[in-house]
Design a protein that fits this description.
Blueprint lengths: L1 E2 L12 H8 L14 H36 L2 E2 L1 H5 L6 E6 L8 E2 L2 E2 H14 L6 E6 L9 E2 L3 H6 L10 H12 L3 E6 L8 H8 L4 E6 L8 E8 L8 E11 L5 E10 L2 E10 L3 E11 L4 E7 L10 E7 L4 E7 L8 H4 L5 E6 L13 E6 L6 H12 L3 E5 L6 H7 L15 E6 L21 E2 L11 E6 L4 E8 L2 E6 L16 H10 L9 E2 L6 E2 L18 E5 L4 E3 L2 E2 L6 E3 L8 E7 L2 E8 L12 H7 L6 E3 L22
Parallel strand pairs: 3-6, 3-8, 8-9, 9-34, 17-18, 17-19, 19-20, 20-25, 26-33
Antiparallel strand pairs: 1-2, 4-5, 6-7, 10-11, 11-14, 12-13, 12-15, 15-16, 21-22, 21-23, 23-24, 24-25, 27-31, 28-29, 28-32, 30-31, 32-33
Length: 652
């Protein structure tokens, strides 16, 4: 049972007045003396009991009558009757809770103003109208309530970053609501509400009322992204961080200060001048101290949106990368010159019988270069190490590469029987691949690509073709195997086969292959990203990780001192999914047994664009629409059906 007017229940307190009067008998009595007659005494006692009973019955009737009368004025209804109400009584109110609504218009944020207007719209509806309150970020089917219950739902709405195609999900929610009238309070940012959104609204059967809530003008500077100057940073050296800034304004922004904090300490800053509507990259150096990781933040000061004024990052520092180089004695290898003398690498050129066959939990790169033969047992051991997160580089011999085919058959790849002897260039580089992330600041133009004189043919479809020849034959393939990577060249790395070994690409490619064995995570993630995060820990094969066991894995929020239990896929390589778990940009810590790993999460940046639909633009978009109204919403004064009046929106 629900009351349409619960405030009237306070009138029940008035029933205390007759109760007090009844409990205190204010009538005066006079004592009179009569002859001692037992019959009269008995009659008097009987009359007294009857009078008392009559008085209580009369009081109960009056008390219940007034009580039920008050309850009737409160209009009680059954909950089941609400769900059976037709769509003509349904009103849906949607409140934009995207990050752009954090900006201020006067002393209040746009979201707070939207909430206040939503409460006013609810108050202007009839008591029997059922209303649903939803944020624009929801994908859940709307649930309808009476107007007196709506304030709680309005107050519970908090900021949520929107997805790039969030408007499609929002439209599906509006369609499933089956509401006769829909009110949308929003700043109508163009990135969240593209033109297609209004075209879909025009095709709906519901009446839609758009209530723009906007600032008079918005200028914004955002930190778009950050990246390291090298794939891996080394202890006790200088690291380099590149910060991409975007000026969304039509005027130049001079003297923008960028502050860099490492482990909560200021370690550097830079001043940048930003041309209008342009992206600029700024470089800041920082010291890499002892430790297994560093956490940091880049920040600027800007009067526009505040969610894109800072960016958190976390970087793991590998202690050392083992390199086991198994090469034929008949060749002169150029790879050893890359690793020797570098403190980050522990280079070992060994024979096959010297290869350690114990489980290796350290970051390791195995190189098989021009070997004429290798036993299946040793090769399977290397594949096991790759599954645990290490890397394997295979360079075929000059002759008889067929023996490798039986070893790599399970990978779905094989070398051709004979070499292709036509001279070709390495002209296709997979710039889009994460392998080349940070290697190129931009796509090279007029690049002097290396030559290949002879090469084995490799299948095109399997794995990622990092380097390809003019005829699209793969020259360097990358294959995911468990947690690790396998890299395969299509020819020996000798001068009579390719000029790659003298080319400027050679050293960074070999180093990048070695760095991939370090299992480095991204420096930051977005709090609403769909993709998972590879778990660097070795987890139980069963995949069930419970908080109550010693094998619990959880994410710790140091600010709120709260633990979050993430969802982990049961794939061969465990993947961590945190969508809708984290709502605030910050540094979090992933714990598993004795392992502690920092993860940085930031707000997505597609809402940094301050362009929004103005009232004149909205009027132009819906001028031919029969079901969309700008700046007015429905007000109901009937027992059930909506009667449309006007209520103007708020403009900054």
């Amino acid at each position: 049972m629900i009351f349409l007017y619960p405030g009237r229940l306070w009138f029940l307190l008035l029933l205390l007045i007759p109760l007090i009067i009844h409990l205190f008998d204010f009538r005066k009595t006079i004592k009179a003396y009569f002859p001692h007659i037992k019959i009269l005494e008995a009659l008097a006692e009987k009359t007294k009991r009857e009078q008392t009973l009559k008085r209580w019955l009369l009081f109960a009737i009056r008390f219940l009558a007034f009580g039920f009368l008050i309850l009737a004025f409160c209009m009680p209804v059954r909950k089941s009757e609400i769900t059976e109400t037709t769509s003509g009584d349904k009103l849906l109110i949607a409140i934009d809770n995207s990050l752009s609504m954090r900006s201020f218009n006067g002393t209040f944020t746009l979201l707070q103003q939207a909430k206040d207007l939503a409460k006013e719209a609810v108050a202007n509806q009839s008591a029997s109208t059922i209303i649903s309150i939803i944020p624009t970020s929801t994908s859940v089917k709307p649930d309808y309530h009476l107007k007196n219950e709506c304030t709680h739902f309005i107050d519970s709405i908090t900021y949520r970053p929107s997805q790039i195609l969030n408007y499609k999900t929002f439209l599906n929610t509006l369609i499933e609501s089956k509401a006769k009238s829909i009110i949308i309070f929003s700043d109508f940012q163009k990135t969240d509400f593209p033109l297609q959104f209004f075209q879909y609204l025009d095709s709906m059967e519901s009446m839609v009322y758009l209530m723009p809530i906007q600032r008079s003008s918005i200028t914004n500077i955002s930190i778009d992204s950050i990246y390291l100057g090298a794939p891996v940073i080394v202890k006790n050296t200088q690291g380099t961080l590149y910060i991409k800034l975007k000026n969304w304004n039509n005027d130049i922004e001079e003297g923008v200060k960028i502050d860099l904090y490492i482990n909560n300490k200021s370690v550097g800053s830079a001043i940048s001048n930003l041309p209008p509507n342009t992206q600029t990259t700024q470089e800041i150096s920082f010291p890499v101290i002892d430790g297994s990781y560093i956490t940091g933040k880049v920040s600027i000061v800007d009067d526009g949106y505040d969610f894109d004024n800072s960016m958190f990052f976390a970087i793991n520092i590998p202690s050392v990368i083992q390199v086991y180089h198994l090469a034929s004695d008949e060749i002169r290898s150029f790879i050893s010159f890359i690793f020797k003398g570098d403190s980050l690498f522990k280079y070992n050129k060994i024979n096959i019988d010297e290869l350690p066959l114990t489980a290796n939990h350290q970051s390791t790169l195995y190189i098989l270069e021009s070997l004429k033969n290798i036993s299946p047992d040793i090769f399977n051991h290397l594949l096991t190490q790759v599954e645990r997160g290490n890397a394997l580089l295979i360079i075929p011999p000059k002759e008889n590469a067929n023996y490798l085919n039986s070893l790599i058959a399970n990978l779905g790849i094989s070398f051709s029987d004979v070499m292709d002897k036509q001279q070709l260039r390495i002209e296709n580089i997979a710039y889009y691949s994460p392998f080349f992330k940070g290697m190129f600041t931009s796509t090279p133009r007029d690049f002097d690509f290396p030559l290949v004189f002879k090469h084995y043919r490799l299948p095109i479809s399997k794995g990622t073709n990092l380097l390809s020849l003019t005829n699209n034959d793969p020259f360097l393939k990358q294959i995911n195997h468990g947690k690790g990577q396998i890299y395969i060249f299509a020819s020996p790395l000798q001068s009579e086969y390719t000029t790659l070994i003298q080319h400027q690409l050679f050293v960074p490619i070999i180093l990048q292959i070695a760095f991939s064995s370090a299992q480095a995570l991204d420096p930051y993630y977005y709090i609403n990203q769909e993709t998972g995060i590879p778990v660097p820990f070795t987890l139980p094969a069963r995949g069930d990780i419970l908080e109550s066991t010693d094998e619990a894995i959880f994410l710790l929020d140091l600010v709120k001192n709260e633990k979050y239990i993430p969802f982990i896929s049961k794939a061969k390589q465990p993947i961590l999914f945190l969508k809708n778990i984290i709502s605030r940009a910050d540094i979090y810590y992933l714990y598993y047994k004795d392992n502690k790993l920092p993860l940085a999460f930031n707000y997505p940046r597609h809402e940094s664009d301050p362009r929004y639909w103005s009232k004149s633009e909205l009027d132009s978009l819906i001028k031919n629409s029969n079901n969309i109204v700008i700046g007015k919403y429905p007000v109901a004064f009937g027992p059930s059906n909506l009667i449309i009046h006007t209520k103007n929106c708020l403009y900054g």
